[in-house]
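[job 4471] stage=fold_predict status=RUNNING
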Amino acid sequence: MSQPYLSLEAELHDAFWEAEDGGSEVELMASFLEKFPGPSLEIGAGSGRLMYPLLQKGFEVEGLELSRDMLDLGARRAEPLGIRPIMHQGDMTKWRGPRKYAALLAPAFTLQLAPDPAVALRHWHSLLENQGGLYLTVFMPYAELLGDLPENEWYDDHFVTLPDGREGLLETRHRLDHERQIVEREHRYSLSGEPPLTHLSRQSVRW
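[job 4471] inference complete, writing structure tokens
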């Protein structure tokens, strides 16, 4: 079962994504929102990595996030940007706000982290206005399925050097459940410094 992003995982999450993605998904989301004007909700908004650039572009986007640690990071990030994001804490399969949305955004394989994606999709549909839109990105774990990454062995997954010079490393070990179509991942985060920091977490990704 997937866990909310906590501790060191929350701190390093955006750094790893930004080193890999470079902001390309923000432009895709912006193009999508232009077709569905009005209030929108990003599901799994984290600390605002994708949501805040959309706010700066003038889109009306709120965020939904389960992890308190990610929300706290987001609040600290928003202040120097001069923005006041509306962030909700809640479970993406149960949360319901006071209004419906013209669009929902579920980037970065958020749907595949749900215990039951079909249940999540039905709930998300109930959050939309009539003829509202859903932006969704998914991925296939080809590297795991094709054996390019060793099963049940730790391997270096991501590495990043932070602006303050500290080095962050993510090591991953996975197991495939072909019958249920799930990749069970264990993550081991480490950050250099005095003292060095480590954090362990688990994640279940459906394909």
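[job 4471] summary: The helical segments are 7-21, 24-34, 51-56, 68-81, 117-126, 142-145.
[job 4471] exit 0
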